[in-house]
Write a structure and sequence with these properties.
Helix content: 25-40%
Radius of gyration: 49 Å
Shape: flat
Number of strands: 23
Amino acid sequence: EREKLDLLKKVESSARPSSANTMAPQPTDPATDRPRMAKRIRGVAWFYKNWIQVVGEQDLKEYDEIVICDRPYALRKKRFSPKIVLAVIAPIAVVVLFAVASILTPSFTGKGRIVGFVLDQNGQPIRQSATVRLPDAGQTVQTNALGFFVTDPIKSGSHKVEFLIGGRVVGSNFATVVANEISTMTLAPSAIEPSQSMASAETQPETGVPETSPAQDQRLAAPSVRTGRTVEVVQQRNSNSGNTERIVADPYGRIILNAGVEGATLALNGKVVGAGNMTYTHLKPGRYDYLVSKEAYQSARGTVEVAAGDASTLSVQLAAAKTAEKPSISPEEEHYKAGMDALGASNYTVAENELNAAVAAKPSYAAAYMGLGQTKSQSGHRSEASDDFLRAAEIYRVAGDPSNAMKAYNHAVEANQTSVPALLGRGNLYLSRGEEIAAIADYEALLRFDRRNTQAYLGLGQARFSQGNPKAAIKHFKDARSIDPKNVETYEYLMLCYFAQDDFKEAKKAYENYKEIATAEEMARIQHNPKFSAVLRVVGE
């Protein structure tokens, strides 16, 4: 209530005439002696058919009037109809719901897989390579070393599954495939029964005497044993003896391995057929050279005969192999080990003597130079330590070991931060690894100690050129040229830099200077280098 009264007082005081609130006279236009008009606030009204959009500084309010083409219009806020909102949002919602449903709902492809094992006649996973075939689906897969197989997705339903060895069907079965599920099965060899009964025999009508002898009748009437071997029934007709039947045995043989130890590997004629004391099946008849071997055991060799329809037992005893004698340690390794042990005990004099003996025995022993660098660094001889680290870095780099080379260069720079060879070597290694920024830092640090180092300027130029800055690279190459005008590498890069700037005149000058100092071998090198092919075409070579 008090705030309302204060507001009324302010309104009353502002309404009273006073010298303070008396309006100042409006400025007049000298030309017309009329009051000047206030500045009009202009805007832009965009329209499309009967839709108008007003853009400007106008403060529009609802129920204001606006005149367009001498026609007054009352302003009303545009309110969207729920039907329009629904028509706009509904398609978006459908798309979103479809995307969410596609993520959360599992896909139903209508296909499944068959996973299983192929067994041998002993009920064990087959160790030989077998082919699993689905004739109606047109699929063929191979088993692994443990007889395991997985098919590609196939249509749901019942499918015949066969497994073949050597192109011959050995067993078959049926599997039911359910959509989006895995069906499991095992495949085992199936014995093929004779197509005709062998328990009866025909007699001759004249005498009533059976054609076959009682022993033959007993053999023919004996049931076939399910051993996985194929039994073939052959009928022969003889005018004198009537109908006869005979059995042809399985055309393949087997080997039963007994190596005396578990996990021994069997190889026949140089080809490994499996491992373990088990029966190896489906072997063609003949003589085989076998090798039974196992790690840490002496191998057994020999020959074994395999007969059709028969099993050959191969019994060998593998004796434990003798422990191999440890190779004698080389002199340089012996000195290196002694030196590092002394370094670990802070006996720097002994360590340095032993490591010097190691590098004397083998001058390219980079690890020994690293040990010498550590020894001298810890004993306070940091400049000498830097030299040893630098030798190790160069050996590693020549040997194609950039990682250890970089470690050695870092130790060399750490031991002596003013070492020009260490900074130059590390900068060159950075450049070869494509680390231009680090290379530039090393080259610039080097030039603070050696302002006339041609290789540092060349390195800076190459780094800037690799960064795509030929203008800065030209400056560094000119610095290198001023120090060593006979360096062909400088002119090679100047040609490339000028060509990159489309300055063909300067590129040709650089080439002419290059020809004056380059050897025939160097000329041939750039002519066969694709990097210079475009430059040479421009300069007319």
